[in-house]
Write a structure and sequence with these properties.
The chain has about 575 residues and is α/β, with parallel strands linked by helices. Helix content is about 45%, strand content about 15%. About 45% of the residues are buried.
Length: about 575
C-alpha cells in the first residue's frame, strides 16, 4: 500500500431507513437493491472502512422492526465485506417507542428548561433509565450487532467507540438527539442532547480522527444549547454525520474551537417512489481533500444511480499547531534536499517553489498556484507533507514515518527535476532559511541543511550522489564559515568511502591543524590514518582524541582496531569496557 493509500479512508453513510413490517414489500424493493448497488460499487477491493447509520432505523421503535434492521445490516455487511463491528448506529426520533413512559417524557419536556436542569437529569441514573426505556428496543438491537462489544446499557448516556483503521486511529461519538423526541413538527426547537452527554464522551483528543454521529440538525435543539453543543462537538470532532432531513447536504461550520464538516445523508427509504439516497465518502489526510458521491434511487428503472463525484475540504483542527522544530528534525532525518528552506515551506513561513513552465523556462510560484499546461509538483508535495504533519498524532508512528519517507523521496525527485535551472536559487534560499528557523524557536538546532543532506546520503551508502552534492555546494560560494568547516569533515568521510585514504588523510591533517579543531576531528584523523595504513600515527591521534575528552563510546570500535594494528596495549586499556 502506498503512503497516499494509507492516508485515505472511506465510508458509507445511510440514514432514515424507517423499517416496519407494514411496508415490508416496498422497503425490500428499495433496500435490497441498495445492498446490491453497494456490493457492485463498493465491495472488495473498494470496501469502505466504516459504515454509519444516523438514526430512524425503525419506524416506531418496536422490537419486530429491528429484526428487519438486523437482516438488512447482515446482508449489507456480507455483500460489501465490512464486519458488523465497523457499523456505527445512533437513534432517531423514529427509534423511540412513544407508547412507553409517556408521563416521564411529558415531565421532562416541560421541566428541562435550562442547562442546569439537563445536567441534573443526566446525572441521575434512575431518571435516565426511565426515559431511555423508550428506546430500549433500539439499544438491544445495536448491542446484538456486536454482542462481544455492547455499546449501550439501559441507563448509559455517553457512548464512544475507538477503531484502528490500519495506519490511522479513529474515534466515533455516538450522540443521542432523540431521547426527548416525540416525532413531528413539535420537536423543532424542543429537543436536547445535553452538554453533559458530549462532555462525558471525553476531552478533545488529537490522537484520533473523530466522527460525531447525531440524528437531528442543531437547529432542532432547544435554543439554550444549540450554539454550546455545536461548539463542544466541533472541539472534539472533525466530521459530523447527520440524518432526519430527507435530502443530502454537505457544509462546513467554523467556530472559535475548530471546524466541523457536516454531512446529511438524506433518507434511504421513505417510499418506493421517493428520492431515496445514500452517501459514499472518502477523506485523504495527506491532501486534505475528500470526495463524496450521492446515490439516488431510480424508481422507474428499479436501480440506484450514482451522482457525480464532488470534492470537499477537510481543514485541520485549530488545536493542531505545526511544530516547527519537529518539521526540521524529521525532514533532515529522511534526507530532504534543501532541508531548511523546505521546512520553511512546510511550516508556511515561506511560500514559493520552483516550477518549469510549458516553454521550458522556470519560475518560482506559490505552493497553491496551479498553472495551465504544467504541474506544480513541488507545491503539491509540500502541501501533502504539511497535511501529514498536521495529522501526525492520529497515525501509528511507524506508518507515519514510512509515509514521510515516501513523500520525501517524491519531493527529492521533483526537486532534482528542476535543479538544473533552480539549483542556485534554492541554495541561496536554503542558506538563508536557518536564520528564520532559529529565530522562531530556541529549540531548533538549525544545523546546515547541505551538510544534513550529504550526511544522510553517506548514511544511505549513496557515495556518487554525496560527491555530486558536496562538490556543488563547495563551488556555490554561499556556505557559511561553520558550514564550510562541517563540509570539510564530511569530505574526509566521503574520501574514505571512495577508498581514497591518502587524500582523506591530507584533509584530516588540515582539520587537526585548524584553530577551530574539535576532539572529534582528532578521532576522524585517526580513522583516516588507519585506512592509509599509518598505524602508529593513527594510535597517536586516537590518544590525543581521548586526552581531549572525546566520548569513549563514540570511538571504541575504531580505537580497538587501531590498537590491534599498532600493537598498542595502552590504547586497549583506555577504551575497554
Amino acid at each position: 500500500m502506498s503512503a497516499l493509500d494509507s492516508a485515505r479512508l472511506t465510508w458509507l453513510h445511510l440514514s432514515d431507513l424507517h423499517l416496519r413490517v407494514k411496508t415490508g414489500w416496498s422497503q425490500d424493493q428499495v433496500l435490497s437493491t441498495l445492498s446490491e448497488d453497494a456490493q457492485a460499487r463498493y465491495s472488495r477491493p473498494a470496501a469502505p472502512d466504516l459504515v454509519f447509520i444516523t438514526g430512524d432505523v425503525a419506524f416506531s421503535g418496536k422490537a419486530d422492526e429491528y429484526v428487519l434492521a438486523e437482516d438488512f445490516i447482515r446482508e449489507l455487511s456480507e455483500k460489501i465485506h465490512v464486519p458488523r463491528d465497523r457499523f456505527f448506529v445512533v437513534p432517531g426520533n423514529h427509534d423511540i417507542d412513544r407508547d412507553r413512559e409517556e408521563d416521564a417524557y411529558l415531565g421532562a419536556r416541560t421541566g428541562l428548561v435550562d442547562t442546569l436542569q439537563v445536567d441534573r437529569f443526566l446525572e441521575n441514573e434512575g431518571r435516565r433509565k426511565t426515559m431511555f426505556a423508550r428506546q430500549m428496543a433500539f439499544r438491544e438491537f445495536v448491542n446484538r450487532l456486536t454482542p462481544s462489544k455492547p455499546v449501550y446499557t439501559p441507563f448509559s448516556h455517553a457512548h464512544t467507540r475507538l477503531v484502528n483503521l490500519g495506519a490511522i486511529r479513529a474515534k466515533v461519538l455516538l450522540l443521542d438527539s432523540a431521547w426527548l423526541a416525540s416525532g413531528g413538527s413539535g420537536d423543532v426547537g424542543n429537543l436536547l442532547i445535553g452538554e453533559r452527554q458530549v462532555l462525558d464522551c471525553g476531552a478533545p483528543d488529537d490522537g484520533n480522527l473523530t466522527f460525531a454521529l447525531v440524528h437531528h440538525p442543531f437547529s432542532w435543539l432547544r435554543e439554550f444549547e444549540q450554539i454550546a453543543l455545536e461548539n463542544l462537538i466541533a472541539e472534539r470532532a472533525q466530521i459530523c454525520l447527520r440524518g432526519h432531513v430527507h435530502s443530502p447536504d454537505t457544509r462546513t461550520s467554523s467556530g472559535p474551537r475548530g471546524y466541523l464538516t457536516m454531512f446529511t445523508a438524506g433518507a434511504a427509504f421513505v417510499s418506493r417512489t421517493s428520492d431515496n439516497t445514500y452517501l459514499w465518502c472518502s477523506a485523504n489526510l495527506m491532501t486534505g481533500i475528500g470526495e463524496q458521491i450521492v446515490h439516488h434511487y431510480n424508481h422507474p428503472q428499479h436501480r440506484w444511480d450514482a451522482g457525480s463525484k464532488e470534492s470537499w475540504h477537510l481543514p485541520p483542527s485549530v488545536s493542531r499547531v505545526l511544530d516547527v522544530p519537529s518539521i526540521y528534525r524529521d525532514l533532515a532525518s529522511v534526507g530532504v534536499p534543501y532541508c531548511a528552506y523546505i521546512s520553511c515551506l512546510v511550516a508556511e513561513l515561506k511560500s514559493e517553489v520552483p516550477v518549469t513552465l510549458p516553454d521550458g523556462r522556470g519560475a518560482f510560484v506559490a505552493c497553491t498556484t496551479r498553472l495551465p499546461g504544467t504541474q506544480n509538483l513541488c507545491g503539491e508535495l509540500i502541501e501533502k507533507i504539511r497535511n501529514h504533519f498536521y495529522w501526525r498524532s492520529i497515525w501509528n508512528t511507524g506508518d507515519w514515518n514510512s509515509a514521510l519517507r515516501s513523500l520525501s523521496l517524491e519531493l527529492a525527485e521533483a526537486v532534482r527535476a528542476v535543479d538544473r535551472w533552480a539549483g542556485d536559487e534554492m541554495r541561496e534560499r536554503d542558506a538563508a532559511a536557518p536564520t528564520l528557523l532559529g529565530a522562531l524557536s530556541d529549540a531548533i538546532d538549525v544545523r546546515s541543511a547541505p551538510c544534513e543532506e550529504i550526511g544522510n546520503l553517506l548514511g544511505q551508502g549513496d557515495v556518487v550522489r554525496a560527491r555530486e552534492v558536496l562538490d556543488r555546494w563547495l563551488a556555490s560560494g554561499v556556505l557559511r564559515p561553520i558550514e564550510s568547516e562541517e563540509m570539510s569533515r564530511l569530505e574526509v568521510l566521503l574520501l574514505l568511502a571512495e577508498e581514497r585514504p591518502s587524500e582523506a588523510m591530507s584533509r584530516a591533517d588540515a582539520l587537526v591543524s585548524s584553530p577551530a579543531r574539535r576532539p572529534g576531528d582528532l578521532a576522524l584523523a585517526a580513522r583516516a590514518a588507519m585506512d592509509a595504513k599509518q598505524f602508529h600515527k593513527a594510535a597517536e591521534l586516537m590518544h590525543s582524541a581521548l586526552d581531549a575528552m572525546v566520548p569513549i563510546e563514540d570511538v571504541r570500535t575504531i580505537a580497538l582496531r587501531i590498537a590491534g594494528a599498532a600493537g598498542d596495549s595502552h590504547l586497549v586499556q583506555r577504551v575497554r569496557l
